[in-house]
From TrEMBL:
<keyword id="KW-0414">Isoprene biosynthesis</keyword>
<protein>
    <recommendedName>
        <fullName>2-C-methyl-D-erythritol 4-phosphate cytidylyltransferase</fullName>
        <ecNumber>2.7.7.60</ecNumber>
    </recommendedName>
</protein>
<comment type="pathway">
    <text>Isoprenoid biosynthesis; isopentenyl diphosphate biosynthesis via DXP pathway; isopentenyl diphosphate from 1-deoxy-D-xylulose 5-phosphate: step 2/6.</text>
</comment>
<dbReference type="InterPro" id="IPR050088">
    <property type="entry name" value="IspD/TarI_cytidylyltransf_bact"/>
</dbReference>
<dbReference type="InterPro" id="IPR034683">
    <property type="entry name" value="IspD/TarI"/>
</dbReference>
<dbReference type="InterPro" id="IPR001228">
    <property type="entry name" value="IspD"/>
</dbReference>
<comment type="similarity">
    <text>Belongs to the IspD/TarI cytidylyltransferase family. IspD subfamily.</text>
</comment>
<keyword id="KW-0548">Nucleotidyltransferase</keyword>
<feature type="site" description="Positions MEP for the nucleophilic attack">
    <location>
        <position position="152"/>
    </location>
</feature>
<feature type="site" description="Transition state stabilizer">
    <location>
        <position position="22"/>
    </location>
</feature>
<feature type="site" description="Positions MEP for the nucleophilic attack">
    <location>
        <position position="208"/>
    </location>
</feature>
<dbReference type="GO" id="GO:0050518">
    <property type="term" value="F:2-C-methyl-D-erythritol 4-phosphate cytidylyltransferase activity"/>
</dbReference>
<keyword id="KW-0808">Transferase</keyword>
<dbReference type="InterPro" id="IPR018294">
    <property type="entry name" value="ISPD_synthase_CS"/>
</dbReference>
<dbReference type="InterPro" id="IPR029044">
    <property type="entry name" value="Nucleotide-diphossugar_trans"/>
</dbReference>
<dbReference type="Pfam" id="PF01128">
    <property type="entry name" value="IspD"/>
</dbReference>
<feature type="site" description="Transition state stabilizer">
    <location>
        <position position="15"/>
    </location>
</feature>
Length: 227
């Protein structure tokens, strides 16, 4: 089933502690965001790719898109202060579509089968997000003392992609903006509408390149895929 993907790429990567947007850092000679773009370029179900970028990085990114022949990139929106603002700018810029997928440009190792499962679930039930079961024991602490051990069997670590019926996602994003509500993922905005959001099991390889150690894991993942 077909979809349009929105890729927020307008961050600055403060936690990566590089001197530029972390998405421009290279893994084996290629900037991180291009790995992400190539997954969608190569997915025959992906109709269009839209990017939220910083105004001052737009030309640089557009040049990469041309050089790597990423023909599915159909447009750019100017990113905002927070990730949620960047996603909303993109949602408001794209032509209406059936299902929209929101995916961090900083997650280059997303699995194609997971994308397909998300899109199918969003087509039938409206909202589906990628997640993996929590591996560690999770506890709550107050002033350094454990107050509760949380039942791990009910806990998921949430990733992107997050897939939604386009009209539902746009409504949720605009309502959050009008209400001054800031969430940490798209699903939170949809949950506020009391709309059920389904979990689709993803892979542990779908890491977000966030801190310097993620570059080590990223290289290792790419190397393992060459074997
Ligand atoms: N993003 C965005 N607009 C923002 C902030 C983030 O489009 N105002 C994008 C990032 O480019 C990234 C994705 O959202 O692809 C996930 O955000 P995150 O990992 O937090 O990236 P940064 O905000 O760049 O990193 P940091 O929080 O460490 O500064
Ligand atoms: Mg951030």
């Amino acid at each position: 089933m077909n979809y349009t993907v929105v890729l927020p790429a307008a961050g600055s990567g403060k936690r990566m502690k590089a001197d530029k947007n972390k998405l421009l850092l290279e893994l084996f000679g290629k900037p991180i965001f291009l790995y992400t773009l190539e997954v969608f370029q190569q997915d025959s179900n992906c109709d269009a790719i839209w990017l939220a970028v910083k105004e001052q990085e737009r030309e640089l990114i557009e040049n990469y898109v041309k050089r790597y022949n990423l023909t599915k990139v159909q447009g750019y929106a100017t990113g905002g202060t927070e990730r949620q603002d960047s996603v909303r700018a993109c949602l408001e810029a794209i032509p209406p579509c059936g299902v929209v997928l929101v995916h961090d440009a900083a997650r280059p190792f997303i699995d194609k089968e997971v994308i397909a499962n998300l899109v199918e679930t969003a087509h039938t039930s409206g909202a589906a997000i990628a997640a993996v079961p929590v591996k560690d024991t999770i506890k709550k602490a107050e002033n350094g003392i454990i107050s509760e051990t949380v039942d791990r069997n009910q806990l998921w670590m949430i990733q992107t992609p997050q897939a939604f019926r386009y009209s539902l996602m746009l409504e949720a994003a605009q309502k959050a903006h009008n209400d001054g509500f800031m969430g940490t993922d798209e699903a939170m905005l949809v949950e506020r509408l009391n709309y059920p959001v389904a979990i689709v099991e993803s892979t542990y390889e779908n890491i977000k390149m966030t801190t310097p150690d993620d570059l080590i894991y990223g290289r290792a993942i790419l190397e393992s895929r060459l074997q």
